[in-house]
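Quick start: read one record
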Amino acid sequence: MRVTEDGTAAPRVPGSPLADTVLERLTAAYGPAADPERAVAMRAYMKDVAPFLGLTTPARRALSRTVVEGLPRPDEADCAAVALRCWELPEREYQYFAVDYLRRHVRHCSSGFLPVARHLVTTVPWWDTVDLLAAHVVGALVAADRSLTAEMDEWIGDDDLWLARTALLHQLRYKERTDTARLFDHCLRRSGHQDFFIRKAIGWCLREYARTDPDAVRAFLAREQGRFAPLSVREALKNIGAR
C-alpha cells in the first residue's frame, strides 16, 4: 500500500486498457514537443512546484486532442487510472492533461471518485491544478451527490490548506444552486487563517456568489466584516461595492 505525505493511503491505480493507450499516446505526443528553455521559465513562474516540459497552453491542448482522438468514453476506473498515472509523471503538463480529462468526463464518475480527487488535490499541490479540481471536479461530484457535503465540512477544517481551499471553492460554479449557509459557514470557519491562498479563496468564492446574490454577500460582510482579512473583503466586494 502506498502512503502519501499526510499519512493517508494513496488510491490504488485501477487496471485500465484505455488508460494504457492514453498514457502511451500522451507521452509520445508531449515528449518530443518539449521546449527546455521555456520549461525553465514556466517552472520558475510556478515557484518550482514541479518540472515542466515547456509546452504552451495552445500547443498542449492541440496535442491533447490528438491523444484522445477516436478513443471511447471512459468510465470511472479509466478516469482514475489516467489521472493517477499522470500524477506519477514528473512534468506538470501531464497533470494539466489529467485535469482537463477529468473536467470533460467527471459526469461519468460517482461519489466514490472523491478519494482520488482528494489525492490529486494534496499531491504536488499548487493553485494551477487545485483550483480547477475544486471547481470542476470536486464541485461536480458534490453537486451530483449532496451527501458529499459532509466531506467538504471536514476538508474546510483540515490542516492541509489545499483541502481547505478546495472546500471553499467547490461551489464556485453553482450560482443559484449554492448552499449559501454552508458557503458563509466555511468562510467564517477559516476567517482567521493567515495564509494568502485561504484569504484569497474566501474573497473569490464570495465574489463569485455575489454575481448571483450581491445583497446576501454585502449583508454577510457587513455583519461579519471584522472577522475577515482586508484582502478577503476587497476580493469579495470587487464587483459589487459595499454601498
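The chain has a mean pLDDT of 95.
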